[in-house]
Each structure stands twice: as C-alpha cells, then as structure tokens.
Write a structure and sequence with these properties.
The chain is of the alpha/beta class and about 375 residues long. Among the domains are: about 80 residues, no CATH class; about 100 residues, no CATH class. It has 15 helices and seven strands. The strands form two sheets. The protein has a five-stranded parallel beta sheet with strand order 3-2-1-4-5. The chain has a two-stranded antiparallel ribbon with strand order 6-7.
Length: about 375
C-alpha cells in the first residue's frame, strides 16, 4: 500500500499560514509537505509571507503553477482560453483551474491527508477536493472531520456499528447519554447537525475516537493509519487566535490585513483587505476595491484593463464607475455605517467585520 502523505496548502492568507505554524509547533513529528499555488496575480505581501513561513517552518514550500510552459501568468493563460470570460461567484474557474487542479496533479493518486485552515468561528466547508484519495482535516474546528465523513458515520444504516465503536473504544468515558444519541436515528426533527453537536458536547476525544475507528472500515486514507494524533485534539481557534499565532511566531501579519485610516465627510474610519488571493478577486467588497484603488493604484489600473467586451468584476457596476468621486464617498459611508453596527464584535481586527458580511472567497478555502 502507498504511504499516506500529509499536505498543507499555503494560500498566502492568515488562516492557512497560521495552520502551518500550528501544525509545526504542535505536531512536529508529522512529515507535512507544504505547497502554494501561484496564480501570478498576488500582491507582494503574499510572496513575503510565504518566504517568512519557509524560514519559520525550516522546510521548503513547494511552488505549484498551472500551465508551466506558457509565457503568460497562469491566470492570463486560462483567461485567454476562455475568450476573456472573467471568473465570478457563479463560475469560479480560477480557483479550480489555478489551485485545485494543480493540487490534485501534485498529489496524484497517493492517499493524502490535507489539512485545511477553516477556523472554529466559521460555518463552512470550503472549496475542497472531492477525490477519493484525498481526505480533508480541519484542526482549528471542534469537529475536525469533513462533511462526507460525518454523513457516512451518522447514516441510520450504521447506527449499530457506531455504537459498537463506542463500546469497544479504549479509555473512553462510557457515558450513557452518548449511547442514547448514537441510537437516535436522523429525521426531519433530529438533524445531523443536532446529533453532531450533542456528541461533541459530551466529549470531543470520545467522538473523534469513534470516527477514527469507523474510518478503518472505509477506503479513506486514514483507514490504513494505526494512530492519528489529531484524534486527541480539542483546540478551537478563532480569528484572534490566528493573528496571535502569526504575530508571536515572528512570521508576521501580511500588510494588507492592517488597518489604514481614511476620512469621509468629517467621519474617520479604517479599511483593510479581508483575504489574500488575487488583487482583483471578485469576492472583494466594494470598500476593498476602494482600498486597492487608493493603496495600489497600479494594481487597480491593471484590474480595470480586464474589463472589456461586457465582462466586469462586479455585476452591478464597472470599476470605472466604482471610483467616481461620489461613488467612493457613498461606499465609504456605507462601510462606516456597517462598522458602527458591528461594534459589538469581540475581535480587534477589521478583517473580522469584512468577513462577517462577505460570502466565502478562495483565499484559504480551496483544497
């Protein structure tokens, strides 16, 4: 049987970088391969973060690039094959063609454990590979297992099997309430989410041990592993923890996350970027486009050049319309209003405000 590979993708964003630091500090015995997929359209801070991480990890981060033989950047090469059709939330061809496909080519058919930096304060699975030889693990969450694993484990047809895993598990707290929850079938009135929450409340380690035992009856990569150290992991990391990891390690927080002051109609505020990824990412909020226009005018101008033949980054307006003086004022005022409504947040980072109001992007949710 092929050896299981452990891999971790570095997007250039805060979460995947913090996960690399976390895994290196807490599981140094795991032989993790680090990689990054370069679109050719990142900000300089992204490349600096990757360089800093290499130093901290003491390990090479493999640079992956789609269309290696093309004279164009990976993004421009793919864009030309599509006749200038820009990516959008409905057609995220950039994430798949430039990141996911290169990752799947990188790992091939080997059994792979892919560590994903989705935080404990996020409610999403992310844009991950669905290949059967790739199993995703989420160390920052209370539930480290992927949706497909949980669905199989909680299948009503597996109830007797899951109870057996619990009853024979080593050193587990044989709580009768766990047996009751395991015995209760899923239904319209008792959902998978409720069942998962109930078991995790009674014991994260107990739940992980049951799932790990169950996986040995499947074809998942972990089926061949005698032990898996994250079974005992009870850490739940949220956004403040992520920034602390970056700061305390010396790797540093990428510059685009740091607040910059602005003033509009006598009101002062700060803005920043909420994610890494391409500087023209279509998932950016309007205030982030304004940030790009004012902080990186050359990059904004390059983003404008892609808008032609009816293709635009935003469905509502072109970038040229977005930077009309009156429009900039309105966008900043709307952002300040939202910020005022969000003052109850516990995070001291503006990126948290942006993320709360934004649909998931591709910066750290792929793979």
């Amino acid at each position: 049987m092929k050896k299981v590979r452990h891999v971790l993708g570095i997007s250039g964003g805060k979460d995947s970088a913090a996960l690399a630091i976390y895994m290196r500090d807490n599981y140094p015995h795991l032989d993790i391969e680090y990689y990054t997929s370069d679109t050719g359209k990142e900000l300089d801070e992204t490349y600096k973060l990757i360089d800093n991480l290499e130093i901290y990890l003491g390990k090479k981060i493999t640079r992956l690039s789609a269309f290696e033989n093309s004279p164009e950047s990976p993004f421009d090469h793919k864009l030309m094959t599509l006749g200038g059709y820009l990516p959008s939330p409905q057609h995220r061809w950039c994430t798949k063609a430039l990141k996911l496909d290169t990752f799947e080519k990188f790992v091939g058919s080997a059994p792979v454990i892919s560590y994903v930096g989705i935080r404990g304060d996020e409610e999403r699975e992310g844009y991950i590979s669905k290949k059967s030889n790739i199993q995703s693990i989420f160390p920052f969450r209370r539930n480290i297992w992927s949706e497909d694993v949980i669905s199989k484990f909680f299948s009503n047809s597996n109830i007797s099997k899951t109870i057996a895993f619990f009853e024979t598990g080593p050193d587990l707290n044989k709580n009768q309430r766990i047996i009751e929850i395991l015995s209760t079938p899923l239904s319209m009135s008792y959902t998978q989410s409720q069942k998962l929450h109930g078991l995790l409340e009674l014991g994260i380690k107990e739940f992980n041990q049951m799932v790990f035992s169950f996986l040995k009856t499947t074809n998942y990569p972990l089926a061949t592993e005698a032990v898996f150290p994250l079974v005992d992991n009870e850490d739940i990391l949220v956004i403040d923890d992520i920034f602390k990891l970056l700061e305390n390690s010396g790797v540093g927080v990428p510059g685009y996350y740091k607040p910059i002051e602005f003033e509009v109609n006598g009101r002062k505020g700060t803005y920043s970027r909420s994610r890494s990824g391409c500087y023209f990412c279509f998932f950016q909020q309007k205030i982030e486009w304004i940030w790009l226009y004012e902080q990186y005018p050359d990059k904004f101008a390059q983003a404008m050049e892609y808008e032609k033949d009816g293709y635009t980054w935003n469905q509502e307006e072109t970038l040229a319309e977005l930077i009309e003086p009156e429009r900039i004022i309105k966008i900043k005022e709307e952002y300040l209003n939202r910020f005022e409504r969000s003052k109850s947040t516990k995070s001291r980072y503006l990126v948290d405000i942006l993320e709360d109001a934004e649909e998931e992007g591709c910066a750290s949710c792929f793979i």
